[in-house]
Design a protein that fits this description.
This protein has about 80 residues and is α+β, with helices and mostly antiparallel strands. It has one domain. Helix content is about 15%, strand content about 35%. The protein contains 2 helices and 3 strands, in the order βββαα. It has a 3-stranded antiparallel β-sheet with strand order 1-2-3. A hairpin with a 4-residue loop joins strand 2 and strand 3. The chain starts with 15 loop residues before the first strand and ends in an 11-residue tail after the last helix.
Length: about 80
């Protein structure tokens, strides 16, 4: 039974197709975001909680939480850092 608690290492995973922000809340450190995520494999992740600090947003050069979530999930474009 303890084998199930050990982490597995994989070469790659499935990609995220889309995500929807269901709810956001702000605290002293940053934001907690509730997401639903659609995966390329056809599966869905519902009720995923993500924490993004104000420092993370500053590193992404945005103060928009939606943009911060996009960058944190790997949805980059050529406009990052160009305001």
């Amino acid at each position: 039974m303890s084998d199930m608690l050990e982490p597995f290492e994989y070469e790659t995973g499935t990609t995220i197709q889309t995500f929807n922000i269901i709810d956001t809340s702000v605290n002293a450190e940053g934001y907690e975001v509730l997401l639903n995520i659609d995966l390329d494999s056809g599966y869905e992740l519902k009720g995923v909680r993500m924490k993004i600090s104000f420092d993370d947003l500053a590193a992404y050069e945005t103060d928009d939480i939606h943009e911060g979530v996009k960058y944190a999930l790997g949805f980059f474009n050529n406009q990052i850092g160009r305001r």
